[in-house]
Amino acid sequence: MGIPRFITEDTEVGGEPVGAGSTLFVNLHAANRDERKFPEPDRFDPRRENNAQHLAFGAGPHFCVGQTLARVELQVVLGTFVRRLPELRLRDAPETLRIREGVAAGGFEDMWVTW
Question: Each residue of 28-46: pLDDT tens digit?
Answer without folding.
Answer: 888 888 899 988 888 878 8
